[in-house]
Fold this protein.
Amino acid sequence: MSKILTIGEILVEIVATKKGNGFREAVPLIGPFPSGAPAIFIDQVGKLGHDCAIISRVGDDDFGWVNIHRLETDGVDVSGIEIVPQGTTGSAFVRYREDGSRAFVFNIRNSACGSIDLSAKTHALIDSCTHLHVMGSALYAPSVVDSILTAVSRIKSRGGTVSFDPNLRAEILDSPGMREALQTVLAETDLFLPSGEELFLFTEAKTEDAAVAELLGRGIKTIVVKRGASGASYFDEAQRLDQAGYVVSEIDPTGAGDCFGATFVTFWLRGADPADALKYACASGARAVTREGPMEGASTEVELKDLIQAQAEK
């Protein structure tokens, strides 16, 4: 069986319980919740029982250990997480606005995961993996970019595959080297997982069909466009498939796209029928929003089957 690797930020998320625009006033908070887009992704892979690992750094503090314990409990190989004795684990303070959008205050660049340098140990871990999943949000610092590009090169050179979710945040889009790194990763991508308008980040095309055709023509094998509550669409050279979203009561949408991506990648690597992979991925994203906290809605395969069956019976 393939082993899935991701590299990037591990942090805690602390959430305002009152809606509003940012943090320029005192507001009640809940958390800390284990978080970080790569961490949410790999936790969902682990919950599905697939061999997986993450490379990152955390401080030797409660915020770091709450993440390590969650990932390890859910089946993730945490041997690539460096614990920095005097470091501080990353954090994200999140407040929802009335329109459902979010305001973030991040501490990533100055946290333990603000730099991720590879060692002999993590090089060996990379070489034990057959697939790399890249989150655009993880391209936030030069050392992290270098580590990810090294892993891309090593895994691809051995016949492995790469999936790429742009997952961009306005707060980090202008990080040094990010735009160039995004283009470099895209050139090595086998499976591309943009959300909505992210499909047009790397093309001058004006329509979805034209953008998909151009990207497939560059060598990407599969494109899956995430559409939030509306579902998702699958494209390859032979076909297009559409899957409607599942109707659930939304509590917290953070992490839904990461869970969707993890589930699709896992089923895709297992050789599942694309329609089944899309169905399970949509169920994973839907179930993720029904729990408070970005990693709390990660699902087992049995839980996803139950959701799919329950929706079919309605």
